[in-house]
Structure to design on (260 residues):
């Protein structure tokens, strides 16, 4: 990636940097540029980066930028994904692990990729297994999005906890979250969307040294407004980004429509 697109507008809300781009493509390119730079910096310091990635259509442009730019030695990068449905068939196209394998993990030579097992018969044990993997080192980068209800990963408002003692947990998905999966085209009808999932918790995500949060489109405008102008609390889980010392929220004109 030769150049970084310039934002049309930048500002801060508490500790959170916000960048607004005219187009979704520019937004994704800028976020990818910064994510690659964060990984390169860790490698320059002689370490192997550990990074967590969201799986959602909102991430497509950013993921494409990761595939086609930068000087990262992916053989030294350890990848994780942040949530997974429970109970989907192994080959289901809606699987978040499959989404990331097709768009990122399978396209680059990662040193390792740790997948959540959504077909497990013992979800509690799977949460414990993944928590051990996460705790083996610091998280250098989280590439995240924000849901229509303000969630991050599957931390919906009813289950989000900024002080959660767990790194990984089983959650029931709220109605807005499940409907978003239909709106995104992942499922044809609400009754097809799983009711439960495994998710990294808010403390697990917020522990990252750097957060790149990519939020395009008009359906996210209300959640963006709540995250930036409301109280910092679990009613809008993404509002916690305002307390992170090294997070950037990347918006396009549509997702920023209610705040500019």
């Amino acid at each position: 990636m030769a150049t970084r697109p310039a934002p049309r507008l930048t500002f801060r809300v508490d500790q959170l940097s916000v960048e607004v781009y005219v187009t979704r493509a520019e937004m994704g390119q800028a976020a990818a540029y910064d994510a690659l730079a964060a990984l390169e910096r860790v490698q320059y310091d002689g370490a192997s980066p550990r990074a967590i990635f969201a799986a959602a259509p909102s991430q497509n442009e950013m993921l494409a930028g990761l595939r086609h730019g930068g000087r990262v030695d992916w053989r030294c990068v350890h990848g994780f994904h942040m949530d997974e449905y429970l109970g989907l068939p192994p080959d289901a196209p809606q699987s978040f692990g499959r989404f990331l394998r097709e768009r990122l993990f399978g396209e680059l030579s990662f040193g390792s990729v740790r997948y959540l097992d959504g077909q497990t018969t013992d979800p509690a044990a799977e949460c414990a297994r993944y928590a051990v993997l996460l705790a083996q080192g610091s998280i250098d980068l989280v590439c995240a999005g924000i849901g229509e209800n303000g969630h991050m990963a599957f931390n919906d408002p009813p289950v989000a906890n900024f002080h959660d003692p767990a790194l990984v947990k089983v959650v029931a998905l709220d109605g807005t979250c499940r409907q978003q999966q239909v709106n995104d085209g992942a499922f044809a009808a609400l009754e097809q969307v799983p009711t439960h999932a495994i998710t990294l918790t808010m403390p697990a995500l917020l522990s990252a040294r750097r957060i790149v949060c990519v939020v395009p489109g008009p359906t996210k405008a209300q959640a963006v407004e709540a995250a930036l102008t409301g109280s910092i609390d679990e009613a809008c889980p993404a509002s916690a980004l305002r307390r992170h010392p090294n997070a950037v929220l990347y918006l396009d004109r549509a997702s920023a429509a209610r705040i500019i």
